[in-house]
Amino acid sequence: MAKNSAxxxxxxxxxxxxxxxxxxxxxxVLRRVDEKDLDDPVRRAEQALAGLSGEFKxxxxxxxxRLSAAYVAIRNDGFTKDRxxxxxxxxxxxxxxxxxxxYPAAAGIAESLxxxxxxxxxLEKVPAELFTHHINAxxxxxxxxxxxxxxxxxxxLSRRLRKVADDYLAHVNRDRxxxxxxxxAPSIVPAEQG
Amino acid sequence: MFRIDFNKLRFLxxxxxxxxxxxxxxxxxxxxxxxxxxxxxxATALEMYSHYxxxxxxxxxxxxxxxxxxxxxxxxxxxxxxxxxxxxxMLTGHSEKRRVTVARxxxxxxxxxxxxxxxxxxxxxxxxxxxxxxxxxxxxxxxxDRRRNTNSAYMGPERRVGEKHEVLxxxxxxxxxxxxI
Lengths: 194, 181
Fold this sequence. Notes:
The structure holds 2 protein chains of 2 kinds. Chain A is mainly alpha-helical.
């Protein structure tokens, strides 16, 4: 259903570009309903997501164990591109998933760790404590705290780690303006979610 | 008021994280979708894209070997035998402005920053279904129209030549990405 035939596609050619238009191939899935229609697909989905929440603790444990294993491999054998990428992806997944799983402070710490991995000019020269403090904080939040971490020590821990990481990144990138600009730019995600 | 008949839509979901795939599958099935195909990397997704011809692609960005950005670039090949026009929703943990720009320039239709929400996902899908944009082909770009505002004084190197009215009035991808609901 997704594709129109070639004869439906209209191409207008200009000096530097073409504009290509076609009938909306998905128009048939739009259905007008009465304003009083009680069906709410978003609410239905939110309820289904809530139904999964019993599994979130186990999922989060899997994610942090992966992060921890990725760093242990680096600590034992040093940075390689593959090990660096695995550490970044593990942290990046936690950054994206943890708030959904009920651990918003862990998401914030994982974001801070991602920034260190992405913007430190030489990962071998990053103080090991900067990695271990981030990873241990995430482990502690998931293994030892409840999911109601956002109002407690873990939120403050997240803020402080972020400041330490940002100060470090600002210092080591002081001669790299393109990185500094990214480091100092605000996130597109509202702070309370992240 | 409009609703989407999700049971008529075919989705391709690409994310290397099994937990996120499970969440996406749950949300899409709850919306009413029946056909949800899943890939755990970009290469598999590209094969499935050719085989199943999905109506909408939802992809993560950071994945090993062949990431979501490359997947979008491979789909947006104007001469390909497949469908280069399918809407692509980039669902990602990246939350920097420059990432939105890079995704836009790869031909991504919508950008949704994690953490995911049912409302955010539904609105992105509704937008690509109800408000498709024309495609633009230049020497260096093929994908949905990237222009969102009027600036007749713009004289930069990427200014298009030859049109009087060429701008779609709609919020920028960045503005929409900032709106996570």
